[in-house]
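Q: what sequence does this backbone want?
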């Protein structure tokens, strides 16, 4: 009697074969409806694609590998978050002023992760090729995960500190948060190829290191290990997103020569929009971290000027040059953070975080990092405001600032070649006058005026009576900011009093 033979062992598919099955055999042609009706946005931006199969994820990531990889990261991240909470990790940060950087991140950046999730889910639906569709699907899941992990991590601070209670509501209403919000709404209301240029390339590839690396390093320097862990968990995804962003740009440029001027215009636009958004990061790095890692000036040189040179030298073979006005951004690196922090100090009565004047030690650091500008232009301003504070005459700007129609930042920036003169640009469209903080923002408006005349400008909305009332307290209540608790100076705030009480207890009961 012959023994039963075991079934032949099936050969496992290679990674390349699995990726090919996932992305090449799902891209069928429709029969019930013509392809141009199923994918209505594939051509209207003017981008010409001749071979969708030419686009390939350089990681060849398949769904089973994706879930396995992400699940492992989740297990590690939540173990750290739980440990941080159980050991009262908030007591180990350098100074409670640091938490104000988290407040700005939670209200300004975390909602953008959710917007990116929706954006990638939307544009993934509108690509004809299966490869880009799969990549967008995975990135949409990544972005949703980032929003969730950031909320979970920072929810621990909400138990003890003020201003962290309603980040989503604040993101939709508070005046300075319209800057990041309008950035993403601009991208999400563009076509699918422009969206990828805006988010995958200009933001993720060109500028994301200026947001994540200094912020996560700042968290590590200031003892916030939970934030460091979610940062590194997200950063491994960001590295993949950056590579995909570069690949999509090269894909468009290689498909047809006619795509080059379209892509260049998008790079010009979205570099400038992203750079203006990062003004908030510049302020955070130089003023909001009690223990600093590097200045905004140094970060710009390292992550844009040096890395950008290599990137755009590579892209020059396609006919792509550096973004328009990049030299203006380099001129502004010596003053950007000072101009923004001074503005928030003047308007701290309407913010969901606290501000303060830099101490003498901190001003020495700023003087060393900005030897050509700080002592000459900004130190005298801070010393004047400190003298006013000491006389009981703390200065608050009682007016509403004029906003740039494009980036929605108050008109606080100075001329590229003259840091003592406010940069002010204007144009007329259909009988109305519109104002801008820079040539970059004016150019963006003039190319698509019908889009930007619809901007929801917070100051205009307050004047029109759409923000809860005419008084400061009415608007603050509409923002869901607790008046006298979440806003005003750090000195004398409930956050400071609680932190000082904890420090007193620790010094009285050393372990």
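A:
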């Amino acid at each position: 009697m012959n023994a039963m033979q075991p079934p032949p062992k099936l050969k496992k598919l290679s990674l390349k074969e699995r990726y090919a099955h996932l992305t090449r055999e799902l891209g069928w042609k429709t029969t019930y409806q013509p392809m141009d009706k199923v994918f209505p946005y594939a051509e209207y931006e003017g981008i010409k694609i001749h071979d969708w199969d030419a686009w390939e994820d350089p990681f060849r990531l398949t769904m089973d590998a994706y879930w396995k990889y992400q699940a492992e990261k989740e297990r590690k991240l939540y173990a750290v978050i739980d440990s941080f909470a159980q050991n009262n990790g908030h007591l180990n940060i350098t100074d409670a002023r640091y938490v104000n950087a988290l407040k700005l991140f939670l209200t300004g950046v975390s909602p953008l992760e959710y917007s990116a999730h929706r954006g990638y889910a939307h544009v993934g639906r509108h690509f004809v090729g299966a490869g880009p569709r799969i990549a967008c699907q995975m990135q949409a899941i990544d972005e949703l995960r980032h929003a969730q992990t950031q909320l979970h991590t920072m929810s621990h601070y909400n138990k003890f500190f003020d201003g962290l209670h309603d980040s989503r509501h604040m993101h939709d209403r508070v005046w300075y948060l319209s800057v990041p919000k309008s950035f993403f709404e601009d991208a999400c209301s563009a076509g699918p190829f422009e969206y990828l240029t805006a988010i995958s390339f200009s933001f993720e590839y060109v500028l994301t290191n200026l947001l994540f690396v200094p912020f996560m390093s700042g968290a590590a320097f200031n003892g916030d290990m939970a934030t460091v862990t979610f940062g590194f968990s997200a950063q491994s995804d960001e590295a993949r997103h950056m590579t995909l962003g570069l690949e999509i740009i090269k894909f468009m440029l290689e498909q047809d020569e006619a795509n080059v001027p379209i892509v260049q215009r998008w790079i010009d636009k979205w570099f400038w929009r992203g750079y203006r958004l990062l003004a908030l990061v510049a302020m955070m790095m130089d003023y909001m971290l009690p223990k600093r890692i590097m200045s905004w000036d140094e970060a710009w040189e390292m992550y844009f000027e040096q890395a950008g040179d290599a990137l755009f030298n590579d892209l020059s073979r396609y006919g792509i040059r550096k973004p328009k006005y990049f030299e203006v951004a380099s001129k502004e690196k010596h003053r950007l953070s000072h101009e923004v922090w001074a503005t928030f100090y003047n308007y701290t009565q309407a913010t969901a975080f606290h501000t303060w004047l830099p101490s003498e030690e901190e001003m020495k650091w700023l003087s060393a990092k900005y030897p050509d500008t700080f002592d000459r232009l900004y130190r005298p301003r801070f010393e004047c405001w400190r003298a006013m504070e000491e006389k009981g005459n703390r200065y608050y700007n009682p007016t509403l600032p004029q906003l740039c129609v494009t980036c929605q930042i108050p008109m606080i920036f100075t001329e590229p070649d003259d840091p003592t003169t406010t940069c002010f640009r204007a144009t007329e469209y259909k009988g109305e006058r519109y104002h801008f903080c820079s040539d970059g923002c004016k150019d963006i408006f003039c190319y698509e005026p019908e889009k930007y005349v619809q901007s929801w400008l917070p100051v205009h909305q307050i004047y029109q009576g759409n923000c809860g009332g005419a008084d400061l307290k009415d608007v603050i209540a509409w923002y869901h900011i607790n008046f006298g608790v979440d806003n005003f100076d750090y000195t004398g705030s409930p956050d400071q009093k609680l932190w000082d009480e904890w420090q007193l207890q620790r010094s009285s009961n050393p372990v």
